[in-house]
Amino acid sequence: MLLALIKWISLAYIALLMVGCAEWGSGTKETPAPAYNDPYTQSDLNELLGFGANMANTPPASRAELCQALLDRQKSSPQIGLQLHLMVGRLLSDACGDIGAIISGVAAIPTASLADEQVRRLVAIDLEALKRLGSVSRKISTLDRKQKNVQSVLESKPPKTPKVEGNKMESNKDEARLLREKLEAIRSMEKQMDENGGN
């Protein structure tokens, strides 16, 4: 009987432990993993300045890859932070997109959506720099086109060959002979003057 009582108490104890463990496990709330805070969607001043500084210190090939990734993300999920990162990135790499598109995209952002006054100032500075960069870019491409046009015109024209007729050719030879004779006469006169001046 004692053995049956010990078995019954052991089973009760195990059952209580199992129920307690089950209660304890179900009573705890699983804390959700912290949401990933994507820095490229942020529009605060420190993030934008840090992004620009990091990008300035990376090689051009890496800049181009980053710009392409930002452009792809902006196409699929347009966000203010991505647009501002592209604006900063475009100052450092042509791969960050078309200047006109970036200017119009950033200009369309409501002022109230920008984090603070310092971000608004940074946006104003960067937009002005992009406008100037775009203007210089247009001037260079215009000059390149003009240069190519001039080059193609020069290459298409055959070199002019003088038309020499029989009498003209002889007269040119006579003129060249006369000029040589005059040159020789001048040289001999200079030589005589040097010799006379030396005595």
- Strand count: 0
Q: What's the overall geometry?
A: rod-shaped
Please give the alpha-carbon distance between the first and last residues: 159 Å
- Helices and strands, in order, run as HHHHHHH
What is the CA-based Rg, rounded? 43 Å
- Note the main sheet: none
Task: Count helical runs.
Answer: 7
Secondary structure category: mainly alpha
Give the % helix: over 70%
Strand content: under 5%
pLDDT < 50 stretches: none
Summed up, what is this model?
Residues 147-174 are annotated as: Disordered. With 199 residues, this protein is mostly helical.
Task: Tell me what you see in this structure.
There is one protein chain. The chain has seven helices and no strands. The protein has a domain at 45-144. It has 199 residues and is mainly α. The model has no long low-confidence stretch (mean pLDDT 79). Helix 5 (99-107) runs antiparallel to helix 6. Residues 162-174 have a biased composition (Basic and acidic residues). Residues 147-174 are annotated as: Disordered.
Q: How are the elements arranged and paired?
A:
Blueprint: H1 2-27, H2 45-56, H3 60-76, H4 80-90, H5 99-107, H6 117-156, H7 166-198
Helix pairs in contact: 2-4, 3-4, 4-5, 4-6, 5-6
